[in-house]
Amino acid sequence: MDIFVIFTILIGLAAIFGFINIKFLKMPSTIGLMLISIVFTVGLIIAGKIYTPIAQVGEGFIKSIDFEKVLLDIMLSFLLFAGALHTDLEKLKKQKWPILIISTFGVITSTFLIGTIFYYVSPLFGFKISYIYCLIFGALISPTDPIAVLGILKEAKAPKQLEIKIVGESLFNDGIGVVVFLSLYHIADSSDGAVHMADISMIFVKEVFGGLAIGVVTGWIAYRMLKSIDHYETEVIITIALVAVSYVLAQTFHFSGPLAVVLAGLFIGNRARSKAFSVETEKYIDQFWEIADVILNAILFVLIGLEIMVLPFDWKYWLLGAAIIPLVLIVRYSVLFPPITFFRKRLNFAPKTALVMTWGGLRGGISIALALSLSTGIEKDIILTVTYFVVAFSIIFQGLSLKKLIQKTQKQAKKK
Question: What integer is the mean pLDDT of 120-149?
Fold first, then answer.
Protein backbone atom coordinates (compact mmCIF):
# COMPACT_ATOMS: atom_id res chain seq x y z
CA MET A 1 0.00 0.00 0.00
CA ASP A 2 1.25 3.49 -0.86
CA ILE A 3 2.90 5.24 2.09
CA PHE A 4 0.82 8.39 1.63
CA VAL A 5 -2.40 6.35 1.68
CA ILE A 6 -1.26 4.65 4.91
CA PHE A 7 -0.43 8.02 6.49
CA THR A 8 -3.78 9.47 5.34
CA ILE A 9 -5.74 6.61 6.91
CA LEU A 10 -3.77 6.76 10.18
CA ILE A 11 -3.98 10.53 10.59
CA GLY A 12 -7.65 10.43 9.61
CA LEU A 13 -8.41 7.78 12.23
CA ALA A 14 -6.35 9.69 14.82
CA ALA A 15 -8.37 12.86 14.10
CA ILE A 16 -11.74 11.04 14.32
CA PHE A 17 -10.83 9.06 17.43
CA GLY A 18 -9.34 12.17 19.05
CA PHE A 19 -12.55 14.09 18.36
CA ILE A 20 -14.68 11.31 19.88
CA ASN A 21 -12.46 11.20 22.96
CA ILE A 22 -12.43 14.97 23.57
CA LYS A 23 -16.13 15.41 22.76
CA PHE A 24 -17.57 12.43 24.62
CA LEU A 25 -15.14 10.27 26.65
CA LYS A 26 -12.85 13.05 27.94
CA MET A 27 -10.09 10.58 28.84
CA PRO A 28 -6.37 11.34 28.76
CA SER A 29 -5.47 11.51 25.08
CA THR A 30 -3.24 8.43 24.85
CA ILE A 31 -5.67 6.21 26.77
CA GLY A 32 -8.74 7.45 24.89
CA LEU A 33 -7.15 7.02 21.46
CA MET A 34 -5.96 3.50 22.21
CA LEU A 35 -9.27 2.41 23.76
CA ILE A 36 -11.33 3.74 20.85
CA SER A 37 -8.87 2.15 18.41
CA ILE A 38 -9.24 -1.24 20.13
CA VAL A 39 -13.05 -1.00 20.09
CA PHE A 40 -12.92 0.00 16.40
CA THR A 41 -10.62 -2.92 15.59
CA VAL A 42 -12.76 -5.44 17.49
CA GLY A 43 -15.73 -4.10 15.51
CA LEU A 44 -13.82 -4.73 12.27
CA ILE A 45 -12.98 -8.28 13.39
CA ILE A 46 -16.64 -9.02 14.19
CA ALA A 47 -17.76 -7.47 10.89
CA GLY A 48 -15.08 -9.56 9.16
CA LYS A 49 -16.65 -12.74 10.53
CA ILE A 50 -19.90 -11.74 8.86
CA TYR A 51 -18.38 -10.37 5.64
CA THR A 52 -14.88 -11.78 4.99
CA PRO A 53 -13.57 -8.99 2.67
CA ILE A 54 -13.72 -6.53 5.61
CA ALA A 55 -11.31 -8.68 7.61
CA GLN A 56 -9.05 -9.14 4.59
CA VAL A 57 -8.85 -5.40 3.91
CA GLY A 58 -8.22 -4.63 7.60
CA GLU A 59 -5.51 -7.27 8.01
CA GLY A 60 -3.93 -6.26 4.70
CA PHE A 61 -3.73 -2.65 5.87
CA ILE A 62 -2.14 -3.53 9.24
CA LYS A 63 0.34 -5.96 7.68
CA SER A 64 1.35 -3.31 5.14
CA ILE A 65 2.67 -1.17 8.04
CA ASP A 66 6.10 -2.15 9.32
CA PHE A 67 5.29 -1.21 12.94
CA GLU A 68 8.81 -2.03 14.13
CA LYS A 69 10.45 0.19 11.50
CA VAL A 70 7.90 3.00 11.82
CA LEU A 71 8.28 3.20 15.60
CA LEU A 72 11.89 2.22 16.30
CA ASP A 73 13.51 3.87 13.27
CA ILE A 74 11.29 6.94 12.81
CA MET A 75 8.84 7.86 15.57
CA LEU A 76 10.78 6.83 18.67
CA SER A 77 13.69 9.21 18.09
CA PHE A 78 11.43 12.25 17.70
CA LEU A 79 9.22 11.27 20.66
CA LEU A 80 12.21 10.75 22.96
CA PHE A 81 13.77 14.03 21.85
CA ALA A 82 10.52 15.90 22.55
CA GLY A 83 10.40 14.39 26.05
CA ALA A 84 14.07 15.10 26.80
CA LEU A 85 13.81 18.66 25.43
CA HIS A 86 11.33 19.58 28.17
CA THR A 87 13.09 17.74 31.01
CA ASP A 88 14.77 19.94 33.61
CA LEU A 89 18.36 18.71 33.84
CA GLU A 90 18.95 20.35 37.25
CA LYS A 91 16.03 18.44 38.78
CA LEU A 92 17.19 15.31 36.97
CA LYS A 93 20.70 15.70 38.43
CA LYS A 94 19.30 15.83 41.98
CA GLN A 95 17.62 12.46 41.39
CA LYS A 96 20.39 11.04 39.17
CA TRP A 97 21.42 8.12 41.36
CA PRO A 98 18.01 6.49 41.90
CA ILE A 99 17.11 7.17 38.23
CA LEU A 100 20.43 5.74 37.03
CA ILE A 101 20.17 2.63 39.17
CA ILE A 102 16.53 1.96 38.29
CA SER A 103 16.97 2.57 34.56
CA THR A 104 20.10 0.38 34.26
CA PHE A 105 20.44 -2.25 36.97
CA GLY A 106 16.67 -2.16 37.44
CA VAL A 107 16.00 -3.00 33.79
CA ILE A 108 18.66 -5.74 33.75
CA THR A 109 17.38 -7.28 37.01
CA SER A 110 13.79 -7.04 35.80
CA THR A 111 14.77 -8.72 32.52
CA PHE A 112 16.19 -11.76 34.28
CA LEU A 113 13.44 -11.97 36.93
CA ILE A 114 10.57 -11.69 34.43
CA GLY A 115 12.36 -13.97 31.96
CA THR A 116 12.90 -16.66 34.60
CA ILE A 117 9.30 -16.42 35.84
CA PHE A 118 8.04 -16.59 32.24
CA TYR A 119 10.19 -19.69 31.66
CA TYR A 120 8.61 -21.55 34.59
CA VAL A 121 5.04 -20.22 34.19
CA SER A 122 4.59 -20.82 30.43
CA PRO A 123 4.70 -24.68 30.73
CA LEU A 124 1.67 -24.47 33.05
CA PHE A 125 -0.28 -23.28 29.99
CA GLY A 126 1.16 -25.91 27.65
CA PHE A 127 4.09 -23.93 26.21
CA LYS A 128 7.76 -24.83 26.20
CA ILE A 129 9.79 -21.69 25.41
CA SER A 130 13.59 -21.66 25.43
CA TYR A 131 15.16 -19.67 28.26
CA ILE A 132 16.85 -17.18 25.91
CA TYR A 133 13.47 -16.22 24.41
CA CYS A 134 12.00 -15.88 27.90
CA LEU A 135 14.82 -13.44 28.69
CA ILE A 136 14.06 -11.60 25.44
CA PHE A 137 10.47 -11.21 26.64
CA GLY A 138 11.79 -9.91 29.96
CA ALA A 139 13.94 -7.35 28.12
CA LEU A 140 11.18 -5.99 25.89
CA ILE A 141 8.57 -5.75 28.66
CA SER A 142 10.83 -4.16 31.30
CA PRO A 143 11.19 -0.62 29.83
CA THR A 144 8.44 1.83 30.75
CA ASP A 145 6.97 4.40 28.38
CA PRO A 146 7.43 8.14 29.09
CA ILE A 147 5.04 8.96 26.24
CA ALA A 148 2.07 7.20 27.81
CA VAL A 149 2.48 8.47 31.37
CA LEU A 150 3.59 12.12 31.05
CA GLY A 151 0.18 13.58 30.25
CA ILE A 152 -1.44 11.65 33.10
CA LEU A 153 1.14 12.90 35.61
CA LYS A 154 0.53 16.52 34.60
CA GLU A 155 -3.25 16.12 34.77
CA ALA A 156 -2.97 14.51 38.22
CA LYS A 157 -0.70 17.38 39.36
CA ALA A 158 1.84 14.85 40.59
CA PRO A 159 4.65 16.18 42.83
CA LYS A 160 7.58 17.36 40.70
CA GLN A 161 10.06 15.10 42.46
CA LEU A 162 7.83 12.11 41.57
CA GLU A 163 7.27 13.27 37.97
CA ILE A 164 11.01 13.72 37.33
CA LYS A 165 11.74 10.20 38.63
CA ILE A 166 9.11 8.52 36.46
CA VAL A 167 9.87 10.52 33.31
CA GLY A 168 13.65 10.46 33.82
CA GLU A 169 13.64 6.71 34.39
CA SER A 170 11.44 6.13 31.34
CA LEU A 171 13.61 8.27 29.05
CA PHE A 172 16.71 6.25 29.87
CA ASN A 173 15.29 2.77 30.42
CA ASP A 174 13.85 2.79 26.89
CA GLY A 175 17.36 3.02 25.51
CA ILE A 176 18.76 0.50 28.01
CA GLY A 177 15.87 -1.90 27.37
CA VAL A 178 16.43 -1.82 23.62
CA VAL A 179 20.16 -2.49 24.14
CA VAL A 180 19.49 -5.46 26.43
CA PHE A 181 16.89 -6.80 23.97
CA LEU A 182 19.28 -6.54 21.01
CA SER A 183 22.10 -8.14 23.01
CA LEU A 184 19.95 -11.14 23.94
CA TYR A 185 18.44 -11.40 20.46
CA HIS A 186 21.95 -11.44 18.99
CA ILE A 187 22.77 -14.42 21.22
CA ALA A 188 19.50 -16.17 20.30
CA ASP A 189 20.44 -15.86 16.63
CA SER A 190 23.96 -17.21 17.21
CA SER A 191 24.86 -20.77 16.31
CA ASP A 192 24.55 -22.32 19.78
CA GLY A 193 22.04 -19.90 21.33
CA ALA A 194 23.88 -20.04 24.66
CA VAL A 195 23.83 -17.10 27.03
CA HIS A 196 27.39 -15.78 27.32
CA MET A 197 27.64 -12.96 29.84
CA ALA A 198 30.86 -11.68 28.24
CA ASP A 199 29.04 -11.24 24.91
CA ILE A 200 26.13 -9.43 26.57
CA SER A 201 28.48 -7.15 28.51
CA MET A 202 30.53 -6.25 25.43
CA ILE A 203 27.48 -5.41 23.29
CA PHE A 204 25.84 -3.55 26.19
CA VAL A 205 28.86 -1.35 26.94
CA LYS A 206 29.44 -0.58 23.26
CA GLU A 207 25.81 0.37 22.57
CA VAL A 208 25.27 2.41 25.74
CA PHE A 209 28.49 4.43 25.86
CA GLY A 210 28.62 4.80 22.09
CA GLY A 211 25.07 6.16 22.06
CA LEU A 212 25.81 8.59 24.88
CA ALA A 213 28.96 9.81 23.11
CA ILE A 214 27.10 10.39 19.84
CA GLY A 215 24.40 12.36 21.69
CA VAL A 216 26.93 14.62 23.42
CA VAL A 217 28.89 15.32 20.21
CA THR A 218 25.89 16.02 17.97
CA GLY A 219 24.19 18.00 20.74
CA TRP A 220 27.27 20.18 21.19
CA ILE A 221 27.58 20.83 17.43
CA ALA A 222 23.91 21.75 17.18
CA TYR A 223 24.25 23.99 20.24
CA ARG A 224 27.14 25.90 18.65
CA MET A 225 25.11 26.37 15.47
CA LEU A 226 22.04 27.56 17.41
CA LYS A 227 24.12 29.97 19.49
CA SER A 228 25.64 31.63 16.42
CA ILE A 229 22.32 32.65 14.81
CA ASP A 230 18.95 34.14 15.78
CA HIS A 231 16.44 32.90 13.22
CA TYR A 232 13.76 30.68 14.70
CA GLU A 233 12.74 28.96 11.44
CA THR A 234 16.30 27.77 10.82
CA GLU A 235 16.77 26.85 14.48
CA VAL A 236 13.67 24.63 14.41
CA ILE A 237 15.08 22.88 11.34
CA ILE A 238 18.43 22.39 13.14
CA THR A 239 16.68 20.59 16.01
CA ILE A 240 14.86 18.30 13.55
CA ALA A 241 18.14 17.55 11.78
CA LEU A 242 19.81 16.91 15.16
CA VAL A 243 17.33 14.13 15.96
CA ALA A 244 17.67 12.44 12.56
CA VAL A 245 21.47 12.74 12.37
CA SER A 246 22.02 11.55 15.98
CA TYR A 247 19.84 8.48 15.46
CA VAL A 248 21.25 7.54 12.05
CA LEU A 249 24.87 8.00 13.20
CA ALA A 250 24.26 5.84 16.27
CA GLN A 251 22.58 3.12 14.20
CA THR A 252 25.37 3.21 11.62
CA PHE A 253 28.00 2.47 14.28
CA HIS A 254 25.70 -0.04 16.05
CA PHE A 255 25.28 2.22 19.07
CA SER A 256 22.06 3.01 20.92
CA GLY A 257 20.01 5.49 18.89
CA PRO A 258 17.48 6.17 21.69
CA LEU A 259 20.22 7.08 24.19
CA ALA A 260 21.93 9.33 21.63
CA VAL A 261 18.69 11.21 21.02
CA VAL A 262 17.89 11.55 24.75
CA LEU A 263 21.34 13.02 25.48
CA ALA A 264 21.07 15.41 22.52
CA GLY A 265 17.59 16.48 23.71
CA LEU A 266 18.77 17.10 27.28
CA PHE A 267 21.77 19.07 25.95
CA ILE A 268 19.62 21.34 23.76
CA GLY A 269 16.71 21.58 26.19
CA ASN A 270 18.91 22.85 28.99
CA ARG A 271 22.14 24.38 27.71
CA ALA A 272 20.76 25.89 24.49
CA ARG A 273 17.57 27.03 26.21
CA SER A 274 19.53 29.16 28.67
CA LYS A 275 22.41 30.31 26.45
CA ALA A 276 21.46 30.06 22.76
CA PHE A 277 17.72 30.69 22.37
CA SER A 278 16.08 34.07 22.11
CA VAL A 279 12.63 34.39 23.70
CA GLU A 280 11.00 34.06 20.27
CA THR A 281 13.10 31.03 19.28
CA GLU A 282 12.36 29.26 22.55
CA LYS A 283 8.62 29.83 22.06
CA TYR A 284 8.57 28.45 18.53
CA ILE A 285 10.82 25.46 19.26
CA ASP A 286 8.70 24.50 22.28
CA GLN A 287 5.47 24.88 20.31
CA PHE A 288 6.80 22.89 17.34
CA TRP A 289 7.96 19.95 19.46
CA GLU A 290 4.79 19.96 21.55
CA ILE A 291 2.66 19.70 18.39
CA ALA A 292 4.99 17.07 16.87
CA ASP A 293 4.73 15.10 20.13
CA VAL A 294 0.91 15.24 20.07
CA ILE A 295 0.65 14.17 16.41
CA LEU A 296 3.14 11.30 16.72
CA ASN A 297 1.51 10.14 19.96
CA ALA A 298 -1.91 10.12 18.31
CA ILE A 299 -0.68 8.00 15.40
CA LEU A 300 1.26 5.68 17.72
CA PHE A 301 -1.65 4.84 20.01
CA VAL A 302 -4.04 4.38 17.10
CA LEU A 303 -1.48 1.94 15.66
CA ILE A 304 -1.23 0.07 18.98
CA GLY A 305 -5.00 -0.35 19.03
CA LEU A 306 -5.11 -1.55 15.42
CA GLU A 307 -2.39 -4.14 16.03
CA ILE A 308 -4.93 -6.35 17.80
CA MET A 309 -6.13 -7.42 14.34
CA VAL A 310 -2.92 -9.35 13.64
CA LEU A 311 -2.65 -11.07 17.03
CA PRO A 312 -3.03 -14.87 17.01
CA PHE A 313 -6.37 -15.77 18.59
CA ASP A 314 -5.55 -18.66 20.91
CA TRP A 315 -7.22 -18.70 24.32
CA LYS A 316 -4.13 -20.28 25.90
CA TYR A 317 -2.07 -17.25 24.81
CA TRP A 318 -4.69 -14.99 26.38
CA LEU A 319 -4.69 -16.90 29.66
CA LEU A 320 -0.88 -16.76 29.82
CA GLY A 321 -1.04 -13.01 29.11
CA ALA A 322 -3.54 -12.48 31.92
CA ALA A 323 -1.39 -14.52 34.33
CA ILE A 324 1.79 -12.60 33.50
CA ILE A 325 0.31 -9.12 34.19
CA PRO A 326 0.37 -9.31 38.04
CA LEU A 327 3.78 -11.02 37.96
CA VAL A 328 5.26 -8.18 35.90
CA LEU A 329 3.88 -5.66 38.42
CA ILE A 330 5.29 -7.63 41.37
CA VAL A 331 8.72 -7.76 39.74
CA ARG A 332 8.66 -4.02 39.03
CA TYR A 333 7.81 -3.24 42.66
CA SER A 334 10.54 -5.58 43.93
CA VAL A 335 13.10 -3.90 41.65
CA LEU A 336 12.05 -0.38 42.65
CA PHE A 337 11.74 -0.90 46.40
CA PRO A 338 15.43 -1.35 47.39
CA PRO A 339 16.89 1.77 45.67
CA ILE A 340 13.92 3.92 46.67
CA THR A 341 14.21 2.78 50.29
CA PHE A 342 17.96 3.42 50.24
CA PHE A 343 17.69 6.96 48.82
CA ARG A 344 14.48 8.01 50.60
CA LYS A 345 16.28 9.62 53.56
CA ARG A 346 18.87 11.35 51.37
CA LEU A 347 16.47 12.82 48.80
CA ASN A 348 13.02 14.36 48.91
CA PHE A 349 10.73 11.49 47.94
CA ALA A 350 6.96 11.75 47.51
CA PRO A 351 4.89 9.38 49.69
CA LYS A 352 4.59 5.77 48.47
CA THR A 353 6.99 6.46 45.59
CA ALA A 354 7.62 2.75 44.92
CA LEU A 355 3.89 2.00 44.69
CA VAL A 356 3.13 4.97 42.42
CA MET A 357 6.14 4.26 40.17
CA THR A 358 5.10 0.60 39.94
CA TRP A 359 1.55 1.47 38.89
CA GLY A 360 2.78 4.39 36.77
CA GLY A 361 5.28 2.22 34.91
CA LEU A 362 3.16 1.99 31.79
CA ARG A 363 4.36 -0.14 28.90
CA GLY A 364 3.85 1.14 25.37
CA GLY A 365 4.63 0.90 21.69
CA ILE A 366 8.32 0.08 22.15
CA SER A 367 7.47 -3.27 23.76
CA ILE A 368 5.09 -4.17 20.93
CA ALA A 369 7.55 -3.03 18.24
CA LEU A 370 10.31 -5.18 19.75
CA ALA A 371 7.97 -8.18 19.95
CA LEU A 372 7.01 -7.68 16.30
CA SER A 373 10.70 -7.63 15.33
CA LEU A 374 11.17 -11.25 16.41
CA SER A 375 11.55 -13.96 13.78
CA THR A 376 8.32 -15.69 12.79
CA GLY A 377 7.55 -18.74 14.91
CA ILE A 378 5.71 -20.01 17.97
CA GLU A 379 7.90 -17.88 20.27
CA LYS A 380 6.92 -14.71 18.40
CA ASP A 381 3.19 -15.54 18.52
CA ILE A 382 3.24 -16.21 22.26
CA ILE A 383 5.51 -13.28 23.16
CA LEU A 384 3.60 -10.82 20.95
CA THR A 385 0.22 -11.76 22.44
CA VAL A 386 1.45 -11.68 26.04
CA THR A 387 3.21 -8.36 25.39
CA TYR A 388 0.03 -6.87 23.97
CA PHE A 389 -1.93 -7.96 27.05
CA VAL A 390 0.58 -6.32 29.41
CA VAL A 391 0.73 -3.12 27.31
CA ALA A 392 -3.06 -2.83 26.94
CA PHE A 393 -3.64 -3.44 30.66
CA SER A 394 -0.98 -0.94 31.72
CA ILE A 395 -2.16 1.85 29.43
CA ILE A 396 -5.91 1.43 29.94
CA PHE A 397 -6.35 0.16 33.51
CA GLN A 398 -3.19 1.47 35.19
CA GLY A 399 -3.36 4.71 33.20
CA LEU A 400 -6.99 5.40 34.10
CA SER A 401 -6.45 4.73 37.81
CA LEU A 402 -3.03 6.39 38.20
CA LYS A 403 -4.47 9.86 38.78
CA LYS A 404 -6.65 8.61 41.65
CA LEU A 405 -3.72 6.74 43.18
CA ILE A 406 -1.51 9.86 43.12
CA GLN A 407 -4.25 12.03 44.60
CA LYS A 408 -4.97 9.44 47.30
CA THR A 409 -1.31 9.18 48.36
CA GLN A 410 -1.04 12.98 48.47
CA LYS A 411 -4.12 13.25 50.70
CA GLN A 412 -2.75 10.61 53.04
CA ALA A 413 0.56 12.48 53.23
CA LYS A 414 -1.19 15.75 54.15
CA LYS A 415 -3.11 14.08 56.97
CA LYS A 416 0.11 12.89 58.62
Answer: 91
